[in-house]
Amino acid sequence: MLTVSEISKSANVTADSVRHYVRIGLLKPERNPDNGYKLFKTDDVKKVRFIRQAKGLGFKLNDIKKIINHSHKGESPCPIVRKIIEQHIEENKTKLAELNALQKRMENALKKWQSMPDGEPDGHAICHLIESVNNY
Amino acid sequence: MLTVSEISKSANVTADSVRHYVRIGLLKPERNPDNGYKLFKTDDVKKVRFIRQAKGLGFKLNDIKKIINHSHKGESPCPIVRKIIEQHIEENKTKLAELNALQKRMENALKKWQSMPDGEPDGHAICHLIESVNNY
DNA sequence: TTAACACCTAGGTGCGACACACAGGTCAAG
DNA sequence: CTTGACCTGTGTGTCGCACCTAGGTGTTAA
Hints:
Largest sheet of chain A: 2 strands, antiparallel
Oligomer: homodimer
CATH architecture of the largest domain in chain A: Orthogonal Bundle
Shape of chain A: elongated
Number of helices of chain A: 6
Structural class of chain A: mainly alpha
């Protein structure tokens, strides 16, 4: 049986991550009746490693919970795993497009501002730099 | 004097956004003594538009608060505006690199899995698809 | 006058994945 | 028995709203 710090070192994650996984029900350690400390099975190390592996593929903790539940009930999680990652691929494409657009807006703004002086508040504009940029 | 819904329509944002800006102190409406309703000045419409403009350039509400405070105190916000956007440009580069890497990991995984069948839980692996992927 | 109804309000909570803070417990060395 | 390093569980903060709840408002219709 492992304590929080022991399992966190074995699985190479922070103790806070382990505690978080417990809080959201991904891990369900027993408790030391003497002091209430969490006590994990050695198998939980594998579980934590699985969680990190899945997170590395973009799965959210909530997804991972479902996957583990499926597996635990003897059902194959593979169909939902494929479905979820397809969704994430699409969502991430959208996000990337947004962030790329933002990046361009920021770089264009910075470039434009290089030829503009700092301005003192004049009662009209809050910041003439920001307000000089096109809306979109 | 404008109510929440009136200012939200004028500035083309949701009423919840307006309420949020009030909660974090970006807007400080007066109150109708009869019912406690928020009452905004017509100038607050400009302020909300400024907030959205700044948000569109990647400024966080906290940044915007500082910018407005500077301006309100008669100090030029321009120096910090330039500084903040430079930081955001760097941070966003990092984020983009991470998301691009994630995207590749996800696409590679999905491709690899196309030649793999769904597996039933066998007591060893939680999901053999996820566990078959290289860690990084 | 009153009832119905659409629309509005303030403020509480939830989201995601932890990090951080806090007050206190544990344990080996001296 | 004390010091000190290290550990514990739990509460809160992050970010920008969206959603929820319980109730108020205001216009119209009977």
